[in-house]
Amino acid sequence: MPGSSLTAPKRLWTRAQVMAKGCPVPAVPGVYGWHFTAAPSSELSANQLLYVGISPRRMPQRPSSQHLRKRIRYHYRGNAYGSTLRLTLGCLLGLELRRVGSGARLTFTQQGEAALTEWMHEHAQVCWIEHPEPWMVESVLLAELDLPLNLDQNRHNAFHARLTALRAQARQRARELPIAR
Description:
It comes from Actinomadura rudentiformis. InterPro entries: GIY_YIG_cat. Residues 45-168 form the GIY-YIG catalytic domain. This is GIY-YIG catalytic domain-containing protein. Pfam families: GIY_YIG_2. The protein is α+β, with helices and mostly antiparallel strands. The chain has one domain (2-176). It contains 7 helices and 6 strands, in the order αβαββααββαβαα. A hairpin with a 4-residue loop joins strand 4 (98-100) and strand 5 (105-107). It is globular, with a radius of gyration of 16 Å.
């Protein structure tokens, strides 16, 4: 089963290793799994698989230029607007979500994103498996594993309602605040 390669990987990779020259993450399609040395919420456990993602997303209408390396590196250095993992972690860690730019994008602003990047540097570790159709594996993993940080296809998870509400509250607060400059 592909899940065992993610739940009990032979190796986990840190932000420093993934962001270094000679990045070990292959530029191919696949599934990645996130483990955390400290849980982002007291309701979750550390040192276990909490989230899986895929790259590329299934895009039958057009080819995708995404692959594991781009997506994992983006999660480590991007922002909440482009990473549902970062959005979830920031909300769980109590960072303030804000509207930025024209007001349509929501991020944790420069300071919040920097704090989240630092937290991920200290606590987030990733592993991956290569697969030509990662969306096929993702569905199986979400059905069979306890992945509390995943929302899509994961309503059956006990943490789903709590996380959905927390993210909705953060979005609502962001819409009530002025656009961050």
